[in-house]
Amino acid sequence: MTPETKSAYNTAEEWMNRLIIYNTFKKEKIPFYSYDEEFTDVKPIGRKSSGKIYKATLRSLRKTVTIKSINLTVDDAMNEVKKHRILENHDNILKFYGITRQGDYMLVFEYANNGTLRQYLRENYQRMNWNVKLSLARQIAGVIGFLHANEIVYEKLDSGNIFVHNGKIKLSGFEIRRQSINASRQNSNSQYLESPGVIYRKTSLDRNSLGILLWEISNGTPPKVITSENREHVIGTPRAYVKICEDCCQPNKNQWPSIEQVIRELDEIVLSEMESGFFNLTSSLGRTKNVNMENGIAAESDSFTSEMDLFMKNLFTFFSELFVKQHLDMMPICIKKFIKDHNKNPTKILYNLVSQRRPYYTSMVGFFYKHSIGTIADNKIALEFYSQATNGVIDERDHSSDVWQRMKKGLFDFSRKQQKRDPLEH
Predict the structure, then answer these.
(1) Could you give all domains of the chain from N- to C-terminal order, each with its CATH number?
(2) Where does the Protein kinase domain start and stop, copy by copy (predicted)?
(3) Phi and psi angles of residue 384, each rounded to the nearest 5 degrees, phi first
(4) What angle do helix axes 307-324 and 331-341 make, rounded to 10 degrees?
(5) Chain center to CA of 312
(6) How far are the Cα atoms of 78, 103, 185, 284, 320 from residue 21, in angstroms, in the given order?
(7) pTM of the model
(8) Whole-Å CA distances, 316 to 171, 285, 393
(9) 107 - beta bridge partners?
């Protein structure tokens, strides 16, 4: 056989193989895309043990997609797709678009534009309120419950293996091997892909990992220890939410809650609980009736003589500490609760704040107008007071302690940030 004949033979054989593959995928209604013709702006974004991962633009769909190489035969690739299709109807499973080939076969699926959950928390945590946090927690619990209903458990369920797309939780169905949990206990061998694939064993492992994930969503970073004796939580976390985390991570595995119980308890958490159910909020920050010298702020008996004056000073201390501790989303609820707990009239408090000739109260006045505390909401007036607080000069004779200096700087930053925010944002 001459080189020319051999070349022609190889070309014909390759063409026939591609035709067979194309017809096979077409028969199963699996889109097959030409790599060279369909994909542009291909960029490597990662690598797993099972293959390389790329970001690209799919021309025909006009979408940004993820391409993942897989070292599988045609039959194996077909099986992958069939297994994924059982799961992809769930909103929290990455959508599958088709298959391409560049040497190895490559899966084409939805691109998660917010990266992993860990990245998402790192970049957005300070802007997340409890509506967002509870939504993420419920989505994760819901999709894990869906997997368990299909006899699947997810190994290494952590924030580095969970994705976020437009703020919505996404799991990769192509890391999943669908197999009976019971069967796996008798047949656990190397046929399954390694993490973050799905290993079919006791679902309690997922529930334990879920507790750690919920804690990370609450705090913004993975926890070191989760026990009732040594817990680290952000002030404002609902009691029921913390209890779920602790129940999932307690030493006795037999007492871990079922995934159905976790889902139910998360669904029962309502944001109205935030006013009465968060951990020790008023006891740790709000019970400040006797806060004077202990906090480094001298008692000014000549100017703070009445009960209202003393209350306003304590309210200001509380307001300042909330900002210093970065509990911005919880501030309106916390301030309203503080006022209610002390049986004060918010309108009278606002009147006294405006009447006081103390520049450091102007941020708090702006805050009251912004969040309709003691008055109707007026963003224009709020911004005016924030501007005054930003540009105002504070009499250093009032408070010269280190604590006050830190609070003053914090309030200055707070007013400046509020000025930059959309005045209609709530």
Answers:
(1) 3-110 (3.30.200.20), 117-275 (1.10.510.10), 281-420 (no CATH)
(2) 39-426
(3) -65, -45
(4) 160
(5) 36
(6) 10, 14, 35, 66, 67
(7) 0.55
(8) 45, 11, 17
(9) 68, 99
Q: Is the preceding omega at residue 238 within 30 degrees of 0, hence cis?
A: no
Residue 268's φ and ψ, nearest 5 degrees, are -80, -10
Q: In this structure, are residues 138 and 266 in contact, taking their beta carbons and an 8 Å threshold?
A: yes
Residues 6+ apart with CB under 8 A from 290: none
What is the predicted pLDDT for the residue at 280? Answer: 41
What's 325's DSSP letter? T
What does DSSP assign to residue 298? -
Q: What are residue 140's phi and psi, to 5 degrees?
A: -65, -45
Spatial contact of 125 and 220, defined as CB atoms under 8 Å apart: yes
Residues 6+ apart with CB under 8 A from 212: 158, 222, 223, 226, 245, 248, 249
> Over the Cα atoms of the chain, what is R_g?
29
Q: What is the pLDDT of residues 225-268, one digit of tens each?
A: 555 454 556 667 888 888 888 888 887 777 788 888 888 898 88
Tens digits of residue pLDDT in 148-191? 887 777 766 788 889 999 999 998 765 554 443 444 443 333 33
